[in-house]
Amino acid sequence: MTRKQLIVGNWKMHGSHTANAELLAGIVGARPYLADVAVCVPFPYLSEAAIALAATDIRWGAQDCSAHEQGAYTGEVSASMLAECGCRYAIVGHSERRAYHAESDQVVADKAKAALARGVTPIVCVGETLAQRDAGETEDVVKRQLSAVIHALAHCASEIVVAYEPVWAIGTGRTATPEQAQHVHHLLRAQLQAATGRGEQMKILYGGSVKPDNAATLFAQPDIDGGLIGGASLKAADFVAICRAAG
Ligand code: 13P
Hints:
Oligomer: single chain
Helix content: 40-55%
Bound molecules: 1,3-dihydroxyacetonephosphate
Mean pLDDT: 97
Order of helices and strands: EHEHEHEHHEHHEHEHEH
Number of strands: 8
């Protein structure tokens, strides 16, 4: 089964009008790519990403999405707003949101459901901390995180993208080895296959210190379908090199 790979830049809380324009122009100018490419930008920059990318095959998305449809939820942004901004994707359950905003598995599942209901594909992040890995809990943790989403979405669960991001590899320069990542991706795919019957078609991205010099070996693993890129997505040359390492 060949799945088209997907590379998503997660800008996190970085950017400015000037920096964004330069970065987007660099990504657009280096087309075409064999892989699908997208950028997930801070909310205030969604409309400029939409303008810069509208006439291209590069997609854009957000880094979070409210679990609520609308209402008195100060500071939240709904899935229908993201859909109106042309978002193809919304990252949900990133470990930084789980850690700093106390998002539970259930909240993450509700967010994924809200996004999907509005036609925005949730990129559901799962991953263990270093303490959990050292305690031999990696499999239990990622399975539990994914199972909450599968349960909430039921027959729509095959519509999501999954991102395996070991917390200890995020922003640390310490990448999971291709074998470590492949092992977990394989487990996640088996879980998706058992739950939806469509696991072979679904995309599972790897995230955590992906750089131009390690991207190709990671993406060559049979169950790694591309990457969710943090720091290296902020420099056009690096992001373009990573996109070119995928196919
Ligand atoms: P880094 O690529 O900076 O390690 O971040 C990974 C990540 O968190 C992407 O969502």
